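**User:**
Make up any protein.

**Assistant:**
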Amino acid sequence: MSKKIMKLYVGVIVAFLLVVSTTPANADNIENDSVLNIASVSKMYVTTAAMQLVDKGLVNLDAPVTDYIPDFKMADERYKDITVRMLMNHTSGLMGSIYEGALLFDEKSSEYHDSFLNKLSKESLKSDPGSFNCYCNDGFTLLEILVERVSKMSFTDYLKEYITKPLSMNHTGTLFDTDFDKQIPVYINGNVRLANQVPQLIGAGGIMSNAKDVSEFGSAFFTGNNILLSEKSKNEMAKNNKEGIFGEAFGLGWDTVEKDDYKKSGVTVLSKGGDTSQHANLLVAPDQKISVAVLSSGGSSTNCEEVCLDLLDVALKEQGINIEHPEEKPELVDVIPDDYLKYEGLYANTEKVLKITFPDKCYMQIVSVTSDNEFEEKYMYTEDGNFVSVNGDVKAGNAIPVKPYEVISFEEKEGQVYVTMPKAGCQLYKVPDKKVDDKVQKSWEERNGVSYYLVNAKPSDESYLENTRIKLCTSNQAKGFVNGYSIEDSNNLKYDFIMPGTASRDISNACIENVNGKEYMCLDDLGFRMISEKDIPTFDDSVSKVELKTGEASWYKIEGAKDETVHLEVPDNASVYVYDKYMNVKYSSYMIKYGYSVPLPEYGMIVFVGENGSTVNIGR
């Protein structure tokens, strides 16, 4: 059963703290001073801090970031054109997110913050600054540093002095002033508790808080409330930065500043969500003076927003405002106009290449071409000129739209064809013909189906939970492509084309390196280095100990283990993970009270992570 704490401030603030059903019935009690990681809702706090400096005349929104951080440099001269505003509305052109060291277990460190500018200095941009919006974590870590440089305070101290103290928020802070014993737990595999997860990327997603404090923070954006910001700054933050059909309705910091159902009733709704292993959503109706916050351990920020919206509707109804949410069922058409046949062909995003066809002109079929997971999706044409996802047999006449309705359309701009979604911007772009030298193509075809595994993250890095593997996929149907990458040469992959919108977030060029006879894939813009499975040995009875090495995790394949349990002696500053054949985590040394006797899956992987001079001993 889930456990809930709810407080209602009628007509002013609605605060709701939800721990969803992934928390087992025997979980620790939740106290009033419990906190969660509010993930990307943190971006609103660093944006607020920067806008306070704008109000004081210390920062100009449209000045270059280099005016305030002179040592900010990149391997791309266009970085000089990045302005403060671009960091806040996701138009900076930065590659996305440096994930290495972003989320750690039971470790507080300034390393992520202190090394950030150096890591950025080696990156290029994925687009001209200001050309389009694309969700970007790194822009807000950079904004955090800007606030520190201008204010001459650590962001932790600034947050306390100028945001939490004026609002009397007593349970909001960063990794440096939070008691993580108060953190609501995260569970894995149903009922196994993980160690405390400590977010290091403060401005982008590292603030700890509870629902009451977050909703209190939201009240600072009410019309007429100038405790934190001037009306001018709040209005600037609430402007819609979407341009045409290709972007998203970002404000400054806000994910969305317009919601159609509410706009029809004259209600402005501002929204910000966030996801790590914990999740959050903040909704504010500034004119009606309503702030709603939902936080969860498990689930997603989408789930949180759904609860937020329901609570918002209740609060608005108390003010005599009834919000209608009409369900406009798409009217299906079983014949696709001939004009759409020109759109048949290969499409790509940053992850994979897909093929779009129109079988017998009665529906649209999308199938995977270069993807780890093969799939097929069907869409039918609608009377309003869009396509909607359907289930069932189209030709037999029993296809029905999938709920919630997933609507896509084709758009053309400057000779380029895109597949777009109304609220999420571009999803795919049509791939032009591409020719690659046969020898170069063959070098990547030899890597088809080969998986690469993370080696350079530190033992406490949460990346070993989910960012552990990338499998390379080529196809005779998509010569010149690997996954969503374009082949540059025998050892380098890049992106030929970057789309506007969140589909192009968190990307990195890739290169292959050979070191001491082993092959690695480097994703420098994400901060990851990965070893080829071809260079990974088998975990057999001969492995009685593993000598650990800093920055070089030791991977083994588990093949044919059956009813086998190993007993591990894991030193401090080391970790061990066991995965099944689908790369689901079955064991981690960061599982609380699990112990060190570990049943092995029949097939899977095991990784040992640590530092020079340490050893994991293995008993059988």
About this structure: The chain is about 15% helix and 30% strand. The CA atoms of residues 568 and 596 lie 5 Å apart. Residues 536-619 form a domain with the Jelly Rolls fold (CATH 2.60.120). Residues 1-14, 17-27 have pLDDT under 50 and may be disordered.
